[in-house]
Design goal:
elongated; about 45 residues; 2 helices; mainly alpha
């Protein structure tokens, strides 16, 4: 998967992860997991 992030936003994202000892890919994977869980919950609520 490839994504494009504007320069300043990319620097901020990378720095925030680095401060927590996380690689950018680790943060992205976690965000995707959380989003999928949220979507699954939203789908259940629609039924």
């Amino acid at each position: 998967m490839q994504i494009s992030i504007a320069g300043d936003r990319k620097k901020q994202f990378h720095a925030a992860g680095a401060l927590r000892g996380l690689k950018t890919s680790q943060v992205v994977v976690e965000v995707i997991k959380q989003w999928l869980l949220s979507e699954a919950q939203s789908s259940k609520n629609l039924m």
